[in-house]
Amino acid sequence: MASETEPDAPTQGDVDTAEVAFDELCGALAARDLKGLWSRPPLQSEPRPMTRAHLWRWDTIAPLAKQAGQVLDLQSGDGQRRALQFCNPGLKAGTTEALFGAYQYLEAGETAPAHRHSLAAIRFMMTGSSVYTTVDGDACWMEPGDLVLTPNWAWHDHTNQSDQPAIWLDVIDVVLVATWSRCSSRTTRSGCRS
Hints:
The chain has 194 residues and is α+β, with helices and mostly antiparallel strands. Helices cover 18% and strands 27% of the residues. It is elongated, with a radius of gyration of 28 Å.
C-alpha cells in the first residue's frame, strides 16, 4: 500500500517559480517597449477636475484689449495676435482642461496677417462691424452674435474694414491637441494671402 507523503517544505534556497515567471514576463515586455496594464496605478474612482469656476468681466477685459491694440503692433512678432487669454487659476495652461479661450482685438482698418495652425478655432463676434475672417480664400463676415468656424490647418486672416475696433472670442482646442503632441503653425506662405 502506497503511503501518502507530505510535499517537501520549501527551503531557504528555493525560488518561487510564479515570481520568476512574472519577472521574466515583465522583462520580456520591457525589452519590447511594452508594460503590463496591471503595473499602472488604478484609475481614480471619481474625476478630480482641475478647472475652477471663474469669471472674467467684460468691463475689466475690454479696456485691456483696447490697450493691447494701442501697445502692440500687428506687424511685429508679439502683436500679430492681440489676444488676451483666459487663464484658469486651477490650471497650468488653458481656459479649461481641453480648450483655450481669448478675446482678440483688431483696431479699425487693420488686417491681422494670414496664418494657419493644426488647431481648430471658433470665433464668436462680440463688438464691431464690417469685420471678416478669410478662411482658405473665402471671406466670412462677422457681426456681433455671429460664430465662425476655422477648421484646422486652414489659412486665415482677420480684417476690420470699419472705423471702430472689433473684439471677438477665440476658442481653440490647443490644450486638447497639445495633449496629442500635434500642435504646429505657420505664418507665411510664398506669394499668397488668405
